[in-house]
Amino acid sequence: MIQMLLFLVAAVICVPIAARVGLGSVLGYLVAGVLIGPWGMGVVSGVDAVVHISELGVVLMLFLIGLELEPKRLWAMRHLVFGGGIAQMLVCAVLTMPLGMLVGWSWQASLIAALTMSLSSTAIAVQIMQERHLLSSPPGRSGFGILLFQDIAAIPLLALAAALGAHVSGASNFLQISKQLAAIVGVVVFGRFLAYPLMRIIAATGLREVFTAFALLLVMGIAALMDYVGLSMGLGAFLAGVLLAGSEYRHALEADIQPFKGLLPGLFFIAVGMTMNLGLLVASPLIIGTGLLMLVAFKLLGLWLLSRYLGLVGDQRGLFAILLSQVGEFAFVVISTVREAQVFDVKQAGLLTIIAALSMATTPLLLIARNKLMHPDIAEREADKMKNEHPPVLIAGFGRYGQIVGRVLLAAGIRPTILDRDANTIDTLRKFGYKIYYGDATRLDLLEAAGITHAKVLVVAIDEPEQSLKLIDLVQQHFPHVTLVARARDVAHAMQLMARNVELIERELFESSLRTGRSVLRLLGFDPWRAREFSDAFRRINQKLVTELVEHRDNEVGRIAFVKTAQQQLQQQLEQDQIRFEKEHPGAGW
Q: Rounded CA gap, 122 and 125, in Å?
């Protein structure tokens, strides 16, 4: 209990300071770990146990990401995951392997070290991409695909380390690989055929806390199985998430695990900071500093060269390279395994461990340097140019959705003030005369600087539902006079907006999908007038059902029963409309 209190105190002190000065939360957690660890104040012991427990944060994060990727979508990413992933590891390993040979290491140690150091940190890269809203961007998608492959590559990498070891037999190596493959098959079978019935039984009890317990048991059990057979726990959790992505319980699983997801990755970064052997850094600063500098430089070069093959252009290439330039958390597992196999000696393993840990701290620093070089005035933009403006409309988020809204307003002679977090988008659109500013719309001070006090309408066109809801809660609390117009990503998001009594909600693809459906009906021989009447009836009934569904949003069992009944009612209503229309308008046309 005392140690947990120390973790929380260190995080509460260090992370806000790091975020305030622009270093990011990841570096704040790392510094907190160094301060309370054995090479800092030494107030926390049992580092290995803490690291092992904290890895559950990465596991939960990957499980939730897997829930967002249905198998069809993952299959569509196969060229990026396997093609890009294999190319990334090969390019980075080819560039870094000569470093080991130059300092006199054996070719076996140099090869394993190069492949291990080519891994990137899923925890750090995904955390940064989520904080900066980059997961849906081209660099984010490319980086995430490669991170997936790296988790998969852990299997052959550990096998290679064992094969090159001095005391591991071929039979034991074959047995280990067989166990790993059997574990993966077991996860697939369980997730596909057993998890659904179990969740249905538990959901039928109506006890939400039991469902939450089962969700945690599912993720932690799979992680423990992967760890037992020597694989990445995150790989198993991600695989389970993908298999459950098409389940009707997907949103309930997300809601139950979300609170645990945010805290445990922070614990992981603190544990990594505690593992840094600062004594070795003091004893060999030149070797470690040179090794760190050359490793990160070569990884940046390799990733930047690879980015062209992945279709990235311009500033995207540098951003992609920085996001994956650090060494991954799974490298610590590989280094330990290789040391036991006697490919590394104790000193080599210690050097690689501290270089890997220090590399994790370079990523947020490199991102800050990149922003300073590319956008030196970005911090002053909104404060200087938004002062004393009284726009009638604010638009938060200016992607493809927000841009259409903005163009309609401009065509009507209304100049909205626009906030967006993509610096490249801002620079491009300003050339076309848009009044657009860099900034996070969920910050109260920026909203006030943008003139929300005098605005009549706020259009919430942010991509991420969580950020959208955060902004809406903030505005309703501090600026109740503002009318909210919100973009809903899907039905679940729409229900959350309805629960907040948002004045106007538009599902982003609903109207365009209806028009497409109407066009398909016409191509199939429907009368144009009837096709339009049919789509209008569908819109009216669907919107009514979604409004009624809000009452069941927190009850999984009730929501499922309502949706099934509503689907039957929708079908019956449309059939009745069809019969009535044919009686009233025989042979009708335009």
A: 5
Determine how many CB atoms are found less than 10 A away from the CB of residue 175. 11
3-state secondary structure of 117: helix
Mean pLDDT, consecutive 10-residue stretches, the chain (590 aa), reads: 74 78 68 79 68 68 70 73 89 90 85 90 80 75 86 71 58 69 82 78 77 79 80 73 72 68 69 74 84 93 91 84 86 71 75 84 85 56 47 86 86 84 72 73 79 88 86 88 88 82 83 85 82 80 75 62 67 69 58
Q: Which two tokens stand for residue 394?
A: 């604010």
Distance CA 4, CA 32 (A): 13
Q: How many residues in the chain?
A: 590
What domains, with CATH codes, occur in the chain?
Answer: 1-35 (no CATH), 56-368 (1.20.1530.20), 378-508 (3.40.50.720), 512-590 (no CATH)
CA distances from 515 to 113, 360, 532 (A): 56, 49, 9
> 196: buried, middle or exposed (CB in 10 Å: 19+, 13-18, 0-12)?
middle
Is 129 in contact with 421 (CB distance < 8 Å)?
no
Within 8 A by CB and 6+ apart from 53, the residues are 267
DSSP 8-state code for residue 192: I
Residue 278 · residue 34 · CB < 8 Å: yes
Contact between 29 and 276 (Cβ < 8 Å)? no
Q: Tokens in use for 238?
A: 């991600």
Which 8-state DSSP code applies to residue 418?
Answer: E
Residues 6+ apart with CB under 8 A from 462: 396, 397, 441, 468, 471, 487
Start-to-end CA distance of the chain, whole Å, equals 75
Residue 66: exposed, middle, or buried by beta-carbon count in 10 A (0-12, 13-18, 19+)?
buried
Give the bridge partners for 396, in sequence order: 419, 460
Contact 541, 573 (CB under 8 A): yes
Token couple for 212: 């939450």
Which region holds residue 69: left if phi is over 0, alpha if psi is between -120 and 50, else beta? beta
Looking at the DSSP bridge assignments, the partners of residue 459 are 395, 485
Could you tell me what percentage of the chain is helix, strand and coil, using 3-state DSSP and rounding each to the nearest 5?
A: 70, 5, 25
Alpha carbon distances (Å) from 196 to 50, 193, 200, 224, 288? 33, 7, 6, 20, 50
Residue type, 209: E
As a whole number of angstroms, the distance between CA 256 and CA 214 comes to: 10
| Interatomic CA distance for residues 507 and 488, integer angstroms | 5
Strands 457-460 and 483-488: parallel
- Please, are residues 68 and 75 in contact by the beta-carbon 8 Å criterion? no
DSSP state of 522: H
Residue 347 neighbours by CB distance under 10 Å: 10
CB neighbour list of residue 83: distance below 8 Å, 6 or more residues apart: none
Three-state secondary structure string covering 469-518: HHHHHHHHHHCCCCEEEEEECCHHHHHHHHHCCCCEEEECCHHHHHHHHH
